[in-house]
Specification:
mainly alpha, 10 helices, 0% strand
């Protein structure tokens, strides 16, 4: 009994002040009877509001007739649509979680930094400069006869002639002796180690 008394006294020593409880909204001030009546009145008002809402509520058949609630095959179709929507939503959320962030897209050159309108304008200018440069180079290009006269290309050189020369060269390279054979014949000496 003494232990219980001591424990109770210790707990009471740590009990917060009445004003502290009022400030924290735990204890209400005023006449206790009025507080209880105010709480009861709030509950009665809530009950009355719910009761009014239930009385004004449409019955199930009226909701079915108005197309708000689906029944029969329509209910199955609505459930299927809901499932389809939920699956699409889930898939989209999964893909959004796996999506690379902006910094990665910029680092890989997929996304450009800066305002979009400036990016588009910069791209247009870049393309215009490349086109101008290509046009300029094409205008300065020598015609075929001038290249023949300068010895850059041979007259009558065709792709077939080049292919034929390539095949002959590959054949000759394939038939050449390897390093060991050349050493045996004394054509090359042993390489220094």
């Amino acid at each position: 009994m003494d232990k219980t008394k001591e424990s109770l006294e210790a707990s009471l020593k740590h009990q917060p002040e009445k004003q502290n409880l009022v400030d924290r909204g735990i204890l209400r001030t005023g006449e206790p009877n009025l507080q209880a009546r105010a709480e009861a009145l709030k509950i009665e008002q809530a009950k009355a509001s719910v009761s009014r809402g239930l009385k004004l509520r449409h019955d199930k058949q009226e909701l079915i007739d108005r197309g708000i609630i689906k029944s029969g095959p329509d209910a199955l179709q609505a459930t299927a649509q809901e499932l389809k929507f939920d699956a699409a939503k889930s898939s989209l959320n999964r893909k959004l979680k796996m999506r690379q962030d902006k910094e990665d897209l910029v680092a890989h050159g997929i996304l450009k930094e800066g305002p979009p309108n400036l990016q588009a304008r910069a791209q247009e200018l870049k393309m215009s400069a490349a086109k101008s440069s290509l046009d300029q180079k094409l205008k300065m290009r020598h015609d075929k006869q001038e290249l023949v006269d300068r010895g850059i290309i041979g007259e009558g050189v065709s792709a077939a002639a080049i292919e034929e020369a390539k095949t002959a060269l590959e054949k000759r390279l394939g038939a050449r002796p390897d390093r060991d054979e050349l050493k045996q014949k004394g054509i090359i000496g042993a390489s220094p180690q």
